[in-house]
Amino acid sequence: MDEQQARAYWQENIRTIMQLLVVWFIVSYGCGVLFVDLLDTIAIGGFKLGFWFAQQGSMYVFLILIFVYAKRMNTIDEKYDVHE
Amino acid sequence: MELQTLIYLFVGASFALYIGIAIWAKAASTSDFYIAGGGVNPVMNGMATAADWMSAASFISLAGIVSLLGRDGTAYLMGWTGGYVLLAMLLAPYLRKFGKFTVPDFVGDRYYSDVARTVAVICVIFISFTYVAGQMRGVGIVFSRFLQVDIDTGVVLGMAVVFVYAVLGGMKGITYTQVAQYCVLIVAYTIPAIFLSLQITGDFLPQMGFGGTIEFAFDNGVREIPAGTYVLHALDQSFKDLGFAIPYTEGRAGVWDTFLLTVALMAGTAGLPHVIVRFFTVPRVRDARISAGWALLFISILYTVCPAVGAFGRLNLIKNLQNNDYAAWTRECTSEDLANIQAAQRAGQDTARMPCRGQWFATWENSGLIAWLDKNGDGKIQIANGGAFKGKAAYTGERGASGERLISNEAVATPAGQAVGNEVVVDRDIIVLANPEIAALPNWVIALIAAGGLAAALSTAAGLLLVISSSISHDLLGRVIYKDEATGKSKLSEGQELMAARIAAAFAILVAGYLGINPPGFVAQVVAFAFGLAAASFFPVIINGIFDKRMNKEGAIAGMAVGLTLTFVYIVLNVFVDSSGTYKIFSIEATGIGTVAMVIHFVVAYFVSRATAAPPQEIQDMVESIRIPRGAGDAVAH
To answer: Contact, B88 vs A70, CB < 8 A?
Structure first.
């Protein structure tokens, strides 16, 4: 693997992480902490939306994020032929 | 079967299982001992990580904390799960590719410095010991409550079991034992929660029941809450009626404090050595990524059930206690009582408030976790906002008019305008420990809780003890004290190092046991310490090591020194010297200082590294290499 390809691989890796971490930040700190009172004005069943994100939803999203990350990285690894 | 027999049976069987696994998975090499030979299946590793991560505090106390804090408990739920996202994306895959045994290995090699390595070792040992002291205490408490032995005997029993499987099996033994312990603890946690959810809402899944409606009407002391009300609405309404300033689903803590605390817990989680080291045990980089996902899945099962258990517990307390006649409720059952209960059960009615159904209340009163002061002398229990009495319950040894344990504390006056005055103080651990009894579940469920609490405490203790022993034998002895200057490798043979690791593990167990029997009076506060230090030291130093190729020895050492000192001094001043807030800066809470120190660490490290020479070429090549998955291979010792 030459230097240029290594750099391209690393940049794609960073881009993937950044995209997912933006979602991570919005869901946990955005919905669960910073804008929780605003979201609480919306009710879904027995839950206020902000409260649901804080005590349930954020954890489900964390889970999805890690599995999406693992899958996307496997694809990128194969694209650059660095997979194991 | 008799409850006590069942508890012995469940706990005995689970212990036999753990020790059996340890004998089967005996460690033969240092690689087995430190990282289970690097051949653990990612799903199994996820389970082991989950058991390692979820401590006695998660199992016994977390639901109670969330129940007590309402929405403010969110920081713990999100903080202790969101860290796994950081771990999966920013740390685990690269550290796996790096392919050594320990966190100080990475810090020492990446920053080509034994000073950095030694600082890392000291941090690992300090963080792990503060943590393990609480675990051993947890083992003792579970033993004493369920097996009727005193706490010290319980600690010694726990030490003996951990000794066998940690010293013998090392990481390999611990990993497979933790898989079994995860299964025990998650079954023990979810079964009572499912029963509760069915009883209260009719929903099978507690996560659904949390947002479901109650199946019964109840009187909260001020008004009747009709059947079909949402659980959370019933709680909010009751909180309002009973004089609480803030409803259950609203927060009291400031946004800024919650934010800082959550960041510190997340970064701390990702920076805790006993969690990181788990990702050294899987075969490939891609396994390390997915394994973090499995770990979070297994953790989330407990963490998403937990807030539901907290809400159900709080609701049950109001429903079952409010204006209930103490003497009748807690008395020994007469044949008439039993006949009445059976008749009610046949008619499908709720029996929790009926005479003689409240014996659990008296039992936990006897063990000091519940106290009742009949302030208005009506013989009935009232539960509401405000303290019942001043200070910690001081039992006089005598019994009151209703048969309650008398306390000599001065009563606290009910706030003006509040309809009901609070008379009970309930320890937060009751929410989980007494759950099966409050809901009148079968005896085997109570026995299961005992086995589950022990599994949670033992698995975490074992993981921490292993990290302590490997930092001593591998990092301190092998890489610093017995370092061969000519080759940079250890002068100890593999056999000698393995023996040193076993002796260090045995030694660590003795220290942990001592701390469990003579706990420093501040176990709860030192947890903030452990997370703050991990967030301010390991998390940034590892991130820089991977993502900033230009980061050098000077920058790393300066960053760690500043991060650690700031966290240490701030927590000592604000928690141990004067907790009234005299030493606060910008009104930052001690729990949130780890976040601030982490940011300062990043800034200092950046500027110092740019002002000094770039790291040697071979280090830059190493950074290039850990960024590429291929060729991870087996972890090597030297």
So the answer is: yes
Cβ contact, residue pair B88, A66, below 8 Å = yes
Contacts across the A-B interface (CB distance below 8 Å):
137
Alpha helices in B537-587 (DSSP H): 538-547, 553-571
Query: pLDDT band at B638, cuts 50/70/90?
Result: very low
Q: What is the mean pLDDT of residues B615-630?
A: 91
- pLDDT per residue as tens digits for the range B155-177: 888 888 888 877 877 888 888 88
Residue of chain A nearest B266, judged by CA positions: A28
Strand (E) or helix (H) holding A47: strand A47-48
A19: Cβ contacts below 8 Å, ≥ 6 apart: none
Please say whether the beta carbons of B231 and B210 come within 8 A: yes
pLDDT at B632: 66
Q: What is the pLDDT of residue B526?
A: 66
Q: What percent of chain B has pLDDT over 70?
A: 97
Query: From the CA of B32, how many Å to the nearest CA of chain A?
Result: 22
Asked if residue A20 is part of any domain, the answer here is yes
Question: What is the bridge-based pairing of β-strands B405-407 and B395-399?
Answer: antiparallel
Q: Round to whole Å and give the CA distance between B184 and B182.
A: 5
Mark yes or no for CB contact A17/B304 under 8 Å.
no
Residue B73 C-alpha, separation from nearest chain A C-alpha, in angstroms: 8
B-chain CB neighbours of A70 within 8 Å are 88, 286, 289-290, 293
Beta-sheet strands, E only, within B292-431 = 324-325, 370-372, 380-381, 395-399, 405-407, 424-426
**C-alpha span between B173 and B165 (Å, rounded):** 6
Nearest Cα residue in chain A from B306: A55
Any A CB within 8 A of B416 CB: no
Above 70 in pLDDT, residue B524?
A: no
Range of the domain at A66: 3-79
Interface of B with A in 569-608 (CB under 8 A): none
Residue B249 has pLDDT above 80, yes or no: yes
Flag whether A18 is in a domain. yes
> Which residues in chain A are contacts of B249 at CB distance < 8 A?
40, 48, 51
Name every chain A residue with its beta carbon within 8 A of the beta carbon of B77: 54-55, 58-59
The whole-angstrom distance between B221's CA and the closest CA on chain A is: 23
- Structurally, how many domains does chain A consist of? 1
Helix spans in B87-167 (H)? 92-98, 103-110, 114-147, 151-162
Q: Do B77 and A55 touch (CB under 8 A)?
A: yes
Identify which of B97, B267, B172 has the alpha carbon closest to the alpha carbon of residue B470: B172
Q: What span, in angstroms and rounded, lies between the C-alpha atoms of B515 and B159?
A: 11
Indicate the domain borders of chain B: 3-209+249-314+444-626
Classify residue A11: in a domain, yes or no. yes
Give the DSSP letter string of B295-315.
Answer: HHHHHHHHHHHHHHHHHHHHH
CATH classification of B3-209+249-314+444-626, choosing from 3.40.50.1970, 1.10.1040.20, 3.90.1180.10, 1.20.1730.10? 1.20.1730.10
Answer yes or no: is A84 within a domain: no
Question: Measured between CA atoms, how close is B633 to chain A, in angstroms?
Answer: 9
Contact B320, B359 (CB under 8 A): no
Confidence of residue B637 (pLDDT cuts 50, 70, 90): very low
Confidence of residue B592 (pLDDT cuts 50, 70, 90): confident
**How high is the pLDDT of residue B181?**
92
